[in-house]
Amino acid sequence: MDKRDRADIFRKRLSDAMDVSGLSRSHLARLTHVDRSTIGQLLNKTSPRLPNGQLVADLAATLSVSIDWLLGLTNRPESPGDIIAGAMALSPAERTVADAQLLDWHQEATGYKIRHVPATLPDILKTERVLNWEYPSFENQNSTQMVDSIHPQLNWLQTRQSDYEIAIPLHELEACARGISYYADLDEDIRREQLQFIAQTCRDMFPRLRLFLFNARRVFSAPITIFGPKLAVIYVGQCYLAFREADRVNSLTDHFDWLVREAEIDARHVAEHIENLID
């Protein structure tokens, strides 16, 4: 970029930042320890000029904008730290809090496709008896409260306000069917009821609800949920790592779509596959 072009961008952005902050030339000069005439020269339309590095830094700090933005190197006026803080946040994943947070995120994404990779079976498709078996393993948690917190999510799903895609590994359903691994101490009738519920719900709600099964020996995913183009969340145990910056959301969306393309059981056939596991 030509030096005069950059100086012109600097002048315009300095003026815009002063308007937003409500600072006059005199006030800005005092805060940055320069003469008022120096600020006037930087704002001169006929012969704009660039200040030295020290003054650029002082102006950016005083006006709460980034140096890169003032110099035309980015279109984001926020400082890098503010951009990161706005694009990524940690949300507690305690069960009672996280369920309420997840419902809020679901409602925020109404009208958009939601993509989900759960840690085990999807909470939203778990039966009451499975939830009663599973949630007491968390300290200081009331299983009845946990079950009640899932109902609004299922009710939201049944309103069919958004398309919902879920991808889980084949071995998760197989383990549930056989009563091994995570499900080793879960009674057979509870496991059968759970699988029947998933199969019937997938059949009843297709194509708005689509469940894909992938082979974890070929592809892998951490637990994630992508709420349309607005938000992507990674579950990391005690917290959710939430991204709102478009590039990060798009990258995780591409990752989920890759899981769907690589799925060995398509959503059209998943109910039949689960019923075969039960038999």
UniProtKB/TrEMBL annotation:
What's the protein name?
Helix-turn-helix
Q: What InterPro entries has UniProt attached to this entry?
A: Cro/C1-type_HTH, Lambda_DNA-bd_dom_sf
Gene Ontology MF: a single term: DNA binding
Q: Which domain of life is it from?
A: Bacteria
Please state every residue range assigned to the domain named HTH cro/C1-type: 22-70
- Supply the SMART domains for this chain: HTH_XRE
**Origin species:** Cohaesibacter gelatinilyticus
